[in-house]
Design brief:
Layout: H1 12-20, H2 32-41, E1 46-54, E2 57-67, E3 73-79, E4 100-101, E5 104-106, H3 114-131, E6 137-143, H4 154-163, E7 170-173, E8 185-187, E9 189-190, E10 192-201, E11 205-206, H5 216-229, E12 243-250, E13 258-259, E14 262-271, H6 277-295, E15 298-307, E16 310-311, H7 316-329, E17 334-336, H8 344-347, E18 353-355, E19 369-371, H9 372-391
Parallel strand pairs: 3-6, 3-7, 7-18, 8-17
Antiparallel strand pairs: 1-2, 2-6, 4-5, 5-19, 9-16, 10-14, 10-15, 11-13, 12-14
Helix pairs in contact: 1-2, 1-3, 3-9, 5-6, 7-9
């Protein structure tokens, strides 16, 4: 058990309620960053609003807040933007009212990820109230662009942090990592993502005169068959085997008596650290070349880089977070690299990064919600992480 606090603990519940009541649907700030900025600044955090834009995207507001100027520097990264609620009439509770019913707090972003933001803010405030400024630094990197294109958020904040001497030694991302019970999973990495579209150009014509046509469908179908059955790797200690999923096969042809002029397929590869962008691009090019050699045709291949695979190797920082979780929940969390991408894919270029947060069962769903007990337990775990970090620097 943690030692009794000299001051009354900060309650993360009203913080989360205030955040949920802000309609911060990507890319709109909606007041959520203002709530957090006002809260943190009142406890000595130096807050800076960072607004970035791109010529083809709307302005995005972000928040960087830091207390302390020295190392070790622990950063909490998260986002206050949320996905739309959908048809609000489908919710049993108003998605932006932050109502509590039977010990459960409902609202868009309760899990993904205003709950973690509120819990870490409360934990950090409690640490400062009990200890004063840390023997190092605690910071918040909070973006309003995670659920959107992720162009004007974490990427640009990190560039600003590097330019202004704010890069952390370690980072914890508050993504909802737990699967069935709070604390059962910590994300120590993520699979990479690489998407392709491949088009075969043919010659359109009447099916009754096949010698006057060049049907692209059979050529592309051969490629799809090959790549769908291919084994990319066996995985490794941290990653399951890489996977390839074909998502479309389109010819744009409504007629049953016309050979189409072209056929296009799209597919995505989720891959382990056994590969990288270039190795997979080379592999796809080789499969296309093999089919082209056999069947001919004009082929166009486009690749779209999503995120490189990465892993934060088990060590002192991973152990510190595992211990904090086990002390509160009694569970030894699984170290996982499953799931989609997160802003950790950008942070890993600057420092070791982990993801830990509540149960992800209702993210992006109608009636997204978190139990009060789970929220407060998450706050306690974050508090343990902060205390251990500055008492026993990894």
């Amino acid at each position: 058990m943690l030692a009794p606090m000299k001051n009354a603990p900060t309650d993360s519940v009203p913080i989360l309620q205030d955040l949920i009541r802000c309609r911060s649907i990507t890319p709109h700030e909606g007041g959520a960053l203002t709530v957090l900025e006002n809260l943190l600044s009142s406890y000595g955090f130096v807050c800076q609003r960072l607004i970035f834009k791109d010529k083809d995207t709307p302005d995005v507001e972000n928040l960087f807040a830091r207390i302390g100027t020295a190392e070790p520097h622990l950063c909490f990264a998260g986002h206050t933007d949320v996905v739309p609620a959908g048809n609000e009439a489908d919710w049993t509770q108003d998605p932006f009212a932050a109502e509590i019913k039977d010990g459960v707090l409902y609202g868009r972003g309760a899990i993904d990820m205003k709950g973690s933001v509120a819990a870490f803010a409360a934990a950090a405030i409690d640490y400062v109230k009990e200890n004063g400024k840390p023997a190092g630094s605690i910071s918040f990197l909070i973006t309003g662009d995670e659920e959107g294109p992720a162009i004007n958020g974490t990427v640009k904040v990190l560039e600003w942090m590097k330019a202004n001497g704010h890069l952390p030694n370690h980072c914890l991302v508050g993504e909802p990592s737990s699967v069935e019970k709070l604390g059962d999973t910590i994300k120590v990495g993520r699979r990479g993502s690489l998407s392709f579209d491949v088009t075969v150009e043919g010659v359109q014509g009447h099916v009754a005169y096949p010698k006057k046509t060049d049907n692209p469908i059979s050529k592309l179908a051969r490629l799809v068959d090959w790549i769908s059955q291919a084994k990319l790797d066996d995985g490794n200690d941290h990653f399951d085997p890489s996977t390839l999923a074909v998502t479309t096969f389109d010819v744009g042809n409504p007629a049953g008596n016309v050979v189409p002029a072209r056929a296009t397929t799209k597919f995505n590869i989720r891959y382990s650290t056994e590969h990288n962008f270039q190795s997979l691009r080379d592999w796809v090019d080789a499969q296309v070349a093999a089919v082209k050699k056999e069947l001919g045709g004009t082929w166009i291949v486009n690749a779209y880089e999503g995120a490189e695979a990465f892993i934060t190797e088990p060590g002192a920082f991973v152990g510190l977070v595992q211990d904090a979780v086990e002390q509160e929940t009694g569970l030894v969390p699984k170290l996982s690299t499953a799931g989609g991408t997160s802003d950790a894919r950008f942070i890993k270029n600057y420092c070791p990064v982990l993801e830990f947060g509540p149960i992800n069962a209702t993210i992006h769903q109608v009636d997204e919600r978190i139990s009060i007990d789970e929220l407060r337990a998450t706050q306690i775990i974050y508090g343990r992480i902060i205390a251990a970090y500055f008492n026993n620097q990894p």
